Model the fold of this input.
Amino acid sequence: MAALAALAFAAPASAAPLLDTTVSTLGTHSGSCFDRDVSSGTGVTTRSATVDEAGTVTAQLTGDEGDDWDLAVLESDSGRVVAGSAGFASDEVAEGFVLGDTTITVRACRLAGDGDARLRVSATPVPETTEGIWAPKLVNVDTPTREDKTRLVSLGLDMAEHGGEDFLAVVLYGREDVQALKDAGFSYTVDVPNLTRVGLRNLQADAAFSRTTAASGTPTGRTTYRRLFDYNEEMKELVKDNPDIVKPITLPFETYEGRRVHGIEITEDVNVRDGKPVFLQMGVHHAREWPSGEHAMEWAHELVEGYNAGDQRVENLLETTRTIVVPIVNPDGFNVSREAGQVLGAEGGRDAEVGDILLRYSDLAQIAAFPYEFWRKNCRFITDAKGGRCFGQQPSSGLAHAGVDPNRNYGGQWGGPGAETARTAQAYRGPGPFSEPETENIRSLVSSRQVTMLLTNHTFSNLWLRPPGQRASPETPDAALYEELGARMTAENGYSNVKGFELYDTTGTTEDWSYQTAGGFGFTPEIGCLDKNEASGGCNTGNFHGPYREAVVREYRGTSVEAEEEAPGPESGGNREAYFIAQEAAADPETHSIVTGEAPNDAVLRIQKTFQTDTWCSDPRLAQGRPECEGEDQEPFRDHLESSMEVPDSGEFTWHINPSTRPIVAQDSGREPEGPPSEGDEFSGSPETTTPCADFDTEDPSCWNDHPFTVPDDSATDNAKATVRIEWSSPLSDWDMKIFVDSDGDGSSEGETKTELVATSGQGTTDFEQATFVEPDLQEGQSYVVRVINYAAFEPYEGTLSYGGPDEFEPGEVESWRLTCERGGEVITSQQLTIARDEQKELDLSGCARRPGPGPGEGGGPCPRDKVTIEGTRGPDTIRGTSGRDVILSHAGRDEVFGRGGADVICDGRGADEISGGRGADRIHGRRHADFLKGQQGADRLRGGPGPDTIRGGPGEDSITGGPGADDSKQ
Done:
C-alpha cells in the first residue's frame, strides 16, 4: 500500500511542447526513414529542437487519409535513432528516451500520397524521486503444493510465468515486494540478483554477436532485437515486395497512446476472400517478452522467403492455409520496454554508479532503466480511467505497476483464479472482460476469421501450454487430440507439453477464450529457459529477453542446449519446426470442419452466431462455493462470430471452418444426485500459543489445531463436495487453513504431505477462510483433517463443515452456425449448419441462384416516424424500452433491442438485429437482414422481414409469421 500511495500522489512530470507545425515535402521517399544518411529532399523533411534534460521525447504526426508517413527522432550529433514510428498509414507516434541536454532532429518521410501533415513534438523530464535505487531481482519462491502456488499468485506480485514442481519465479522490484512475501510466510532463493545488470550483459552480448556474425541463421539473419518501428517497416516491405502473397492488416482499436496494431496476411492470391483455414501467429502480449515478437516475425519471413525460393513444403502451406502474423499485440508497453533497454546499450561513457553497473545520469537509470525495461502490462491509467500512458507517472515497480495484463483480460472465464482485482497487480484483469484495446483487437480478429490454430508466443519457461488454464475447469472435449498435437510440436524443441494450470491457475487468457468460444486450437509457447540449472530448476541464462543468440536464434533453429538434449528425435528442429507442425495442423481436416458445394460465382457465403459467454463468476458451475466470487457482480456478455468467403469463378467452393458447437458447452456436466447431501458439522478452536507462527507451511504442531472428520458413506445420501469455513471476530487476527486426507487414520495432520493435501485457504486481512473440495478429491467414507494454522491470530474461531450434492446435470449442447448465401448485398438463402470437428458436409445452395425480389417500401408501416418514442442511431445500439408502451425503431447497426413492460411495437432497422419483447403483448417486425426475433411473456405478434430470420415465441399465445426470407420459426 505504501508503494501505491507514493505512486498515486506523486506529481507526474508534465510534457513540455517543443514543436507544433505543418510539414510538407515534394514527392515520396522510397527508402527507410531511419537510416543515418537520409537528408531532406524528395519525400523527406526535417525539423530540429533541443531537449533540456533526461526523459522522453514524443513525436506525433497526423496526415491525410490514404497517405503513408514514417517518423524518426534522432540525436543530431550522433545520428542515433531515439524513437521511430512506421505505421501503415499517416498517423504516427514515436517515443523514446534521451540522456540529457540533447539536440534532436525530427525526420518525417512521406512514402505514399501527396498531402501535408501536422507534427507535434514534446519532451517529458524524468520525475523527481527520493527513493533509493533497488535493482529488480528474479527469485524462486518455494511453493511445494499447488495451493501454495495459488496463494502466491494471489499476492499480486510480478509472476515470471516460469516455475518448477516446488517453486515459482517472481520478479521483485523493491522492499514492498520483499515484505509481501515475508508477510505471507514465503521463503525464496535469489536466482538473478540484478536483472538490469543481466540486461546490460545481454545487450553487450548482442552487440558482440552482431559484430562477429554476418548472418544468424534465422530467415532474416538478424543479430539484435527489433524496435517497434523495425517491425512495422519490415511488414510494409514484405507487402511492397510480395503483393501477390502478402497484404497488410490493421486491427480496429487504437491503443491508449494512439498507436494502431498492425499485422500481415500471407497466402497465395492473398486478396481473394477464400475459404482457407487460418493460422494465427502472435507475439508480445507482455511488453518485456521481446523474443516472442521476434519468433512471430521470423516466421513471416520463413514463409515468404521459402515460397519465393520454391520450397515445396512452404508452397503447400501457402496454397492450403492463410497465415496472419501480429508480432506486437501490445505496442505501447513494448515500445517503452524496448526503448528503455535501448538506453542501457547506449554508447559512450557511463558516469553514474548504480548497483554493480555504470550508467549515465543516475536519475534516468533509476526511472527508466530499472522499471520500464521490465514493463509487463499495457499502459492504462492506474486510476482505471479509460486511457493511459506508460512513461512519467506509473513505473513498473512490482506492487505499484499501472496497466492491465492483456493475457488476463480475455472474456472467457474472465475474473477468476490467477487474475487479480488490484489495479496495481501485475496480473490485473482489468475493469471488465475485453475492456482493453489490445484484447478487443484480437477478439475482433478471431471472431471474423476461421482460425483453426493459433500460437500466442510468450517467454519464458520451456513450456508449451494448452487449455484449460484452471484446475477447476472441466477437461476439454478435444483433450486427446490437443495433447497429441502439443506432443508433436514439443518433440522438436524439448519443451514440456502441459495444460495451462500445471504451471499455475490463470483465467482470462487468450486460448481459454479463443478455443472455448471460437473452437480453434491454440497454444502458448513459453520460449526459453535457455540453460537450465538442474539443482534449482531455474535458469542460468535467459529471462524475459535474454541474449539474442540464445533466446531467438538458438530457440528458433533448435540449437539450444534444451532442444538438443530434451527433444527425442535424432535432430531437433526447434521452434521453426514446431511452427511448421502447428501450421500443417491448421490445414489438417481432423482439427476442424469442412463444407463444400456449388453456388453462383458472384455469391458471398457467411456464417455467424451470437451467444452469451460466461465469465468465471457468472458460470454457476465454477462460482459455487468459491471465495473469489463472493461480492462479485459478474454477468455473461454477448459474443458474436461472423466470417465470410467469396465463391470462386468455378462456382465450386470449399470452406474450412470451426465446428458449430462451442467446446465449452459440448460436454455433459454434473450428474443426477443419488440422494440429499449429509448434514454438516461444527467445530471451534483458539490459539495454542501466544506467539503467532507467521508461517503458512510450518511443520510445528504447536502452530495449528487439527479437526478430523469422515465423509458419511450412506446409500441414502450423496456427497459430491465439502466446504469448510472458519470465521473470527476481526481482520486483526489471521488464521489460515489446510485440508488433508487422513492417510494413517490417526486424526492428526502431522506427517501428512502435499500428496494428501486437497484444499487450502490463506487470504490474509479477512475475518474468514473457506475452502471447497469436490470429487474425485472427495470420497465418501474417507477421513480428512482440517489444519487451522495460527498465522497471526489472537482470537478464537468458529468453524462449519457442510456437504453439497453434485452440480446439476446439464447435457451437452449442440449448436449451429447460421449460414447465408448473399448476392448483390442481399440475403438469398439461409440455413442452420450443424457440423462437428473432423466432419465434412456438402451443402445444397441451389436456391441461391434466384435473384432477390423487391423489399418492402419505405412507408410508415407499423412504426411511422411520428409515433416513434425511442429511436436508435446508425451505429450498433443497445435499446431498452420503458415500463410504458413504446414504439421503438432501430437503424442500420447490429442492434440489441429489449422491450419492457408495455404492449410495445418494435421495428427492426437494416442491421442484423437481436430483438426481444417485454412482458406486454408486443408487436415485433423484422426487416431486410437476418434478424433474431423473440417473444416474451405476452401474446405477441412476430413478423419476419425479407431476410432469413430466426423467430422464437415466448410463453404467451403468440402469432408468428415468417417473411420472404428463409426463416427458422418456432413457437
